[in-house]
Write the structure tokens for this entry.
Amino acid sequence: MEKAAGDTELSEDEYIDHSDGLIHCKKCGGRRQTILPDPLRHSYLMPRCVCPCQQEAERQRKAAGERRALMESIRRRRAQGLQDRYLHEFTFANDNGQNPLMEKARAYVGNWKEAYRENTGLLLFGDVGTGKSFFAGCIANALIDRDIPVLMTNIPSILNRLTGMFAEDRAAFISALDDYSLLILDGLGVERNTEYALEQMFLVIDSRYRSRKPLIVTTNLKLEEIKNPPDLAHARIYDRIMERCAPVLFSGRNFREEKAAATKEAARGIVSPK
């Protein structure tokens, strides 16, 4: 094997450039050896250095490692924040383009930094099956794809988790909800209207309110019902939602009924004899 000055062995992709007597890379021609003064010995040193193509290879290696780490982080965030697997399919890529309100969802994601800074949430209200959950899920998945922590859940699920907990554990659980940059509560109004349920729901909403982080709420309630609550227990919940969440009306086509009809038609074709 050929050796350079100082008995440095050359690898197969290296050569000695006789114009400077230093080791160079056969691929890019760059230096893999340099000259440094050694004032203590009144001489010089010839240490190894990294050529441009080695620098690029290292940059690509680090970038690939960062991409793998990012993808793993996103995977964990999606598994943690969208625990109902069907929510993973609520993406802009799966939007059929038939709901013009989806442009508002895209705009919310596009202006997320401002929404987060200004604590701007959304109240998605309207009839059953008009696309509110899909709208919210698309926002959730798009932000998770940016490695932003999002939790999309519903109040009955939260109440089930809180039931049976000691007061200290309940407080810790509710506080943990505020660790997410965006909290999405799907289906406001379907929870049990017991004193306990309303109190726990208030604690969740109030904690989020005080965290000054955005909240998105979906509901089949009419806006007038929210603006004119039946009692004080509902009023203090709705007031906090209305203060932080801009209302967006979903009306018109019932996409859920249309999908159910299409499913029935597909099933008829499968089971009917030919």
In short: The longest strand covers residues 182-188. The first helix runs from residue 52 to 81. Residues 260-270 have pLDDT under 50 and may be disordered.
